[in-house]
Design goal:
The chain has about 325 residues and is an alpha/beta fold. The chain is built from 10 helices and 15 strands. The protein has helices spanning about 10, 80-85, 130-135, 155-165, 170-175, 190-205, 215-230, 255-260, 280-290, 300-320; strands spanning about 20-30, 35-40, 45-50, 65-70, 75-80, 95-100, 105-110, 110-120, 140-145, 150-155, 185-190, 210, 240-245, 270-275, 295. The strands form 3 sheets. It has a 5-stranded mixed beta sheet with strand order 8-1-2-10-9, with no helix packed on it. A 5-stranded mixed beta sheet has the order 3-6-7-5-4. It has a 5-stranded parallel beta sheet with strand order 12-11-13-14-15, with helices on both faces.
């Protein structure tokens, strides 16, 4: 099954094209309905696919955590996605997808894997409210394949946040307000869990903010803000301090959003932060290729706050110089983030 994950170099060329490759998998036929649901996960988050290994149960684990496995000497927690999604499958899941999010490795038990598909984010839509409610917010995007099958993108970040029971309240208490900063932070993310944490971080910093749930929505709103600034003869960088974007979003991903921002002269001097659970140097390089100024992993409020403080402080200098007609270049911060 490892052959499914080859040709990484070809996949890196998808940055900025609004396309991605997903590993298609199933959680099993639901005994109640007889239906098989198809799901997808970005190949960049997949490290390995294998048949279900021996799993050692661990005490005091959440219900959906099956246990642990030893993977080349490293202990990896295993989450039963079938159980988490409350699907009453006829057989226990027999395939393990080893994934990496924010430099953390975990195994996801699924019923079966199908193949790898190259798709366009423009073909994905936000899930209907009924589906979102039925799946408890677990689905972030849906698309229909040419053969009529529906494929749902799971919000694995939600799974990991709930099972890991991340409580960042104590971390947020250590974040200090950014005094005197009046400019707005705009962020885009399709994950409700991620959006809530970003909001809490920005609120702790006393920063104004607006958001979009995908790149297309974000770009529409950003252009509206730019149009209003232009109409009032106000430099946009005096209103908008930073744009923060996720990578994986329906309709338009973060790479395409960044490319559009960097291609519009009105956004000159406004840094873009890529805020993603995609781990690894290759993804940072992808961000750099479309002009991202900084990369911050998700679910690290202190690191996000530090990056925002640094970029907004730098932007304040640009704002002052901009009032005299000069526009300073945004520092390239990806290696330091």
């Amino acid at each position: 099954m490892s052959k499914l994950l080859k040709d990484v170099d070809a996949r890196t060329r998808l940055a900025g094209t609004n396309r991605l490759e997903i590993l298609l998998f199933m959680l099993g036929a639901d005994q109640r309905t007889g239906r098989r649901a198809f799901f997808g996960i970005n190949v960049f988050k997949v490290r390995e696919v294998m048949r279900r290994p021996e799993i050692v149960a661990a005490p005091q684990m959440p219900e959906a955590v099956e246990g642990m496995i030893s993977l080349r000497g490293r202990l990896v927690p295993v989450i039963d996605l079938v159980k988490y999604a409350s699907i009453e499958a006829a057989e226990p899941p027999g395939i393990l997808i080893v994934t990496e999010y924010n430099n953390h490795t975990q195994g996801l038990l699924v019923g079966a894997v199908d193949n790898i598909l190259r798709l366009d984010w423009a073909a994905f839509q936000a899930p209907p409210e009924m589906l979102r409610t039925q799946m408890s917010g677990l689905v972030t995007a849906v698309t229909e394949l040419q053969d009529g099958r529906l494929v749902m993108m799971l919000d694995v970040e939600k799974v990991l946040a709930e099972i890991g029971q991340h409580d960042d309240a104590a971390v947020l208490q250590d974040i200090k307000p950014l005094a005197g900063e009046k400019r707005m932070v705009f962020f885009a993310d399709d994950s409700l869990v991620a959006r809530r944490q970003i909001e809490r971080t920005l609120d702790a910093m006393k920063l104004r903010h607006k958001s979009g749930s995908n790149g297309k929505e974000a770009w529409h709103e950003l252009r509206r803000i730019a149009d209003e600034a232009e109409a009032s003869h106000t430099p946009l960088r005096n209103i908008l301090g930073v744009v923060l974007t996720d990578v994986e979003m329906p309709e338009m991903d973060g790479y395409m959003l960044t490319r559009l921002i960097k291609g519009d002269s009105r956004f000159a001097g406004i840094p873009v932060i890529m805020h993603s659970s995609l781990s690894g140097a290759s993804n940072r390089e992808l961000g750099a290729s479309v002009g991202v100024d900084a990369y911050v992993p998700k679910f690290d409020p202190q690191r996000l706050a530090g990056t925002l403080e640094r970029l907004l402080g730098s932007g304040a200098e640009h704002q002052e110089s901009g009032n005299n007609g000069a526009v300073a270049a945004t520092p390239h911060l990806i290696p330091d983030s």
